[in-house]
Design brief:
Blueprint (H helix, E strand, L loop, with lengths): L13 E3 L6 H8 L31 H15 L3 E2 L3 H9 L20 H4 L24 E7 L26 E5 L6 E5 L8 E2 L3 E3 L2
Parallel strand pairs: 3-6
Antiparallel strand pairs: 1-7, 2-7, 3-4, 4-5
Length: 208
Amino acid sequence: MSSEPKHLVSVPSFYLGKYEITQAQWRTVARYGKVKHDLNPDLPHYGRDYVRASEPAEGVSWVEAVEFCERLSRKTKRLYRLPSEAEWEYTCRAGTTTYYHFGEELTPENAALVAQYNQELQDVGSFPPNDFGIYDMHGNVLEWCADKWHTNYEQAPADGSMWETPLDFSEFKHYRVIRGWKSARRSAGEANARVQSPIGFRVACFIP
């Protein structure tokens, strides 16, 4: 899960969701017409009796997140997608170089420590945003990125685009990148499976 080697990336302009996709947004888009895959409007509650509409959607596979983006694109006539890993980190850092965009230490005062400390999910936007005005880049749910998983950045794209080239002959060739927590911390999950962690996503959109 290396964040090395350090490399320069030029990220073109793009839009990224101010918040993680919420339960309410998921339920709405999941009822739009199918593109490639079925979507259940009711996501797993993981032992809870109910979820709030303004909580981030969780228990979403990468394939389901992509289907969400494709349904939203068809409905709105705008091209929505998952962010590339480079776009996600650029937005998360918001010009900073520390472990987190707010400094070196993660505390309950600046993020919902769900995946790390098994605390409850909070409504999106419950904590201060970063300097780009984007909320919950640390804390609440982990987030899917578009890229295929690679163990390091050797030969990674330098233009901010998604890294689509798979790892040949690898047990990880069907895995996709998961981001969250530290600005540079990386992990992965199988694209068609629900990871056993609170994982959701936010959407990116091309600037015409």
